[in-house]
Amino acid sequence: MAVETRAVPNATRSDFRLGPKALAMFAFLGVCALVSVVASREVADIAGFIGVFFGSVITGSLFIKRSRRFHGRERRGWSLIGVGVLFAAAGVLSIAIVFFATGDAPAFGLNDLFFFATYVTIIVGFGVLPHTQGSALQRTRMAIDGMVGAVFVGSLLWVYLGSILAENLAAASATTKTIGFGYPFFDLVFITVAVLVLLRRSTRRFDTRLALFIVGVFAQVIADVLFLASAQAGSFDQATPPYALNLIGLAAFFASAYLLGSSPPVREYAERVTPLWMIGAAYLPAVGMLVVFVVDTFISGEPNHVLLAATIIVGLLVIARQGVSIAENRVYIEQQRNALVSTISHELRTPLTAIAGFVEILRERDGSIDDDEQREMLDIVFQQTGYMSRIVSDLIMLARGADSEIELEIREVVVSDLVTSAIHASGIRPDTVVVECRPDLVGFVDPSRLQQVLVNLLTNVERYGGPNRLVRVVEHGSDLTFEVHDDGQGIPRRYEVSVWDRFERGPNKLNAAIPGSGIGLAIVQAIVKAHGGTASYRVSEKLGGACFTVLLPGRGAVAHMPVRGTDVAEHASIQREGVTP
């Protein structure tokens, strides 16, 4: 089992404190949003224009200014996002000039090219940001997830909004129609990018900057939908621009830019198996698409061709996603197999080399080897043979799979004697281990199996821990708890769960300088589960390093307690129920 230096979190944290300028900006956007809602149309247009224009200029400039604190892709990404927000300000200004000069402006016209530039620049900026990690297959699967969500939302927008938009633009020019229908397209791309960002694999468990920017993206998408629904005959004067939503989105963008003062800290967290609900969530849009199609067909009496096409496309994307997932699993299994072959061959090569070398010396001895040297060589051969036998036995036990198949021979044993035997069997110098255990504490366990548990934990401490070790055994009622502490560096947080898996050595999986087969903790967990207990890890509060804990419910007793009869299994059952015989 591998234990390596615990990662030190980045001390730099995002500054969440709002200064006077930031508070003034939020107040300004809030007042403009309020006026745009409660005031007359003329006043609302003026307040909305002022808020959106100046808010975009300030926010875009702040993105560009604060992005200079970064380097590489992150600097380029946030700079492009800032430029995109400035394009939006230019678009608002151009529409305002036409509107106040002529009394009206087309809802969709050449001025919208500024907003299309906003979409393109921000999307490219998101693509540049180094927020996505993982293999090519993982990124492909995430892209398909984003496409499924985009097709689902896009088909609904087209069916329930596109017809209204098409009717409104029926008499418009081809250029106006193209621009009008360009908004739903870019909104879909925006949604896809947002899904990819939300599903990203990152060393930062939660990036507030990205989260706030995603909030702004969704606010702008909703604002676009409402504007498209209200655009009558392509006239801006007859439309109802949702200034309040635009300003809410700008407030989220500004907060994101404000937090660029520093990067969020790199936070390690335990890697866990993906829960079933997260796996199933990827297929929810596909199920929703099918449900919408069936319900719409039932209500209207005939299938909607757009919904039918969208359902087929989503189905094909789900099939493609499944194929990518199968390929991912195949790669993972291949990696596991290669790791197994490499680990086991390395583990067996060392004792085999020692055995072969000493046997060769003993076969060709010429009388120069005395009895003491011969006995020492035979002892080493015996130890190495036992080590190989233990590895093979562990592999066979793990191959059986089920913990219930581990045969246990439950007997009464003095716990302190068991701990002492485990220390000697592990090869650790007894004077380097402090033992805290009541001498009158007895356990009803399989002594050989439990000794194997303690030997594995002690061996782990010897390899990866510091010079100080502590073994504590405490009882809580009839529950036995074994704790093995050390003053080493402990396990990096991301590996706290995965180190219990078979052949998993955490960050040392490729480190041939540190011996280990990666099955020690898996054996510990299997034996402990067979006893009805649990094994866990935490940072040692005693020595500051690692602490492995084994809890065996109902397996302990104190020696002075009378034990009637010879049925030890019955006694252990009584102890588990908390009844004193």
Short key terms for the protein model shown above:
Heat Shock Protein 90, 16 helices, disordered N terminus, disordered C terminus, 581 residues, elongated, alpha+beta, 3-stranded antiparallel sheet, 8% strand
Describe this structure in words.
By secondary structure, this protein is of the alpha+beta class. Among the domains are: 20-131 and 202-261; 405-576, Histidine kinase-like ATPase, C-terminal domain (Heat Shock Protein 90). Helix content is 61%, strand content 8%. The chain has helices at 20-38, 41-67, 72-102, 112-128, 136-168, 174-198, 208-230, 243-258, 276-281, 284-300, 305-363, 371-400, 415-426, 447-464, 520-530, 568-576, and strands at 411-414, 433-436, 441-445, 469-476, 479-486, 534-539, 546-552, 556-558. Strands 2-4-5-7-6 form a five-stranded mixed β-sheet. It has a three-stranded antiparallel β-sheet with strand order 1-3-8. 35% of the residues are buried. Residues 1-15 and 561-581 have low confidence and may be disordered.
